Amino acid sequence: MTASRTSNAPVKITGPGGLTAPEEECGLFGIYGMVDAATHTALGLHALQHRGQEAGGIVAYDGEQFHSHRALGLVGDNFNSTDTMKQLVGDMAIGHVRYSTSGGTVLRNIQPLFADFKFGGLAIAHNGNLTNAIKIRHELVQRGCIFQSTSDTETIIHLIAISEYGRVVDRITDALSHVEGAYSLLAITQKKMIGLRDPYGVRPLVLGRLGDAWIMSSETCALDIIGAEFVRDVEPGEIVIIDDKGLHSIKPFSKKPNRFCIFEYIYFARPDSIMEGRSVYEVRKNIGAELARESHVDSDLIVPVPDSGVPAAIGYSQQCGVPFELGIIRNHYVGRTFIEPSDQIRHLGVRLKHNGNAAMLKGKRVVLVDDSIVRGTTSVKIVEMVRSAGAKEVHMRISSPPTAHPCFYGIDTPQQKDLLAAQYDLDAMAKHIGVDSLAFISVDGLYRALGEEGRNIEVPQYCDACFSGDYPIALIDHDKNPAQQQLSLLGEHK
Ligand code: AMP
After folding, report:
1. Is the CB of 378 under 6 A from ligand 1?
2. For the chain, how far is it from start to end, CA to CA, in angstroms?
3. Can you tell me the distance from the alpha carbon of 182 to that of 471, in angstroms, rounded to the nearest whole number?
4. Do residues 396 and 295 make contact, with C-beta atoms less than 8 angstroms apart?
5. pTM above 0.85, yes or no
6. CB 27 within 8 A of CB 202
7. Residues with a known catalytic role
8. What tens digit of pLDDT does each residue of 296-340 get?
9. Maximum distance among all alpha carbons in the chain?
10. Full set of structural domains in the chain with CATH
11. Which one of 321, 337, 339, 368 has the fewest CB atoms closer than 10 angstroms to its CB?
């Protein structure tokens, strides 16, 4: 452990510090005004582990000093020892879990980041992705800023540092007025916990209460784990500030249409979470029911691809009246397949994770229900496994529309060339996967499952860019034309 003291806010760092790669899907949890804030934060992060399994970190503040511990691996492995938790003293803490699918899994990628400013110390954690971080970074480097990482979060830190405003909240607001993208942020200073969502509200953040303490979290399931009450979602574009005067909030940005990420409902969030007033579990069941209405086929069994296909398969089965059975058994000691960095491990991972339940499948016409097809790796293996367990027919039903476009807003999807739906039409996909039939929920069916009449073409109610290619926030760093991107990096093109 190393300790560094500064005039403003001493910080003690354990574990690695420093650089981070671009943020992908992540989980945030913070608590203000609770003895043992870090222990509660560790529990909250444990409930958010599905949002990131690569690494986790917690920064706590005890009124005099910041304490930080960050490590690669699971929360339960890194925040379980009394020794570690004893270091993280204070009644205010924030934490972060993250994953990246790139091979560059390194210690320095871990958040929350900490920086000392003119006004004191600030720890900050980020879920999402900025779409003009490279452009801003070039501008900042030209102004003399020295970056230690490629991180979006560090870009925000520099923008806060150079802001000419006095109050920390004004500096953060000023910093964010320069950025584009999808982000939820959580920060602590020596006096405040600050949480906010981008003006479109793409990424989630909720507010909770436990006694006198305030909590902010990516999902409500992390409130449940510590017995906290769910108060409300932080609103799109809202900055919530909690200090010794209580909670207050501002909305300094111009209003934008709400575009909450629809993929949170389909796959990413935990089914026991409530997002934007809707139970994720119920939405998934509704999607399954819509899917059955749209594309049911004669069959003997409805079988989920566990675990992500389970609620949709229940809804599907209840709608069509064909029995739901666990025709695939999942080994719970293997993490999410997709998260493994290399193709080779990804292939191996699928075999390690699932096994066909021959007692259920033999001689049956089976409808398999899964949440999404990305590269198609999982589906190919699963179908092969179900056939070798004796299924007579295998039909695949997917509770999302075809994923044909990459996400630039914080869900990690591969480049377009690696997306099966971007390369093949429906028949070719069915052939590739080896199924007797394949169907995806329609975009309107998905919106109906969310209580809408359908997708509003003028102003869609959600961000569904991964399905529609309609990106609500400018992709400044991701221009498809490299020459144009170069110009935009020079600030000459938007
Ligand atoms: P693939 O094998 O590439 O087609 O991946 C599809 C599987 O990965 C689905 O069964 C999903 O449950 C899961 N999945 C989809 N999107 C993601 C994501 N962004 N991160 C992690 N897992 C995902």
Report:
1. yes
2. 45
3. 11
4. no
5. yes
6. no
7. 26
8. 999 999 999 999 999 999 999 999 999 999 999 998 887 554 555
9. 73
10. 2-259 (3.60.20.10), 274-469 (3.40.50.2020)
11. 321
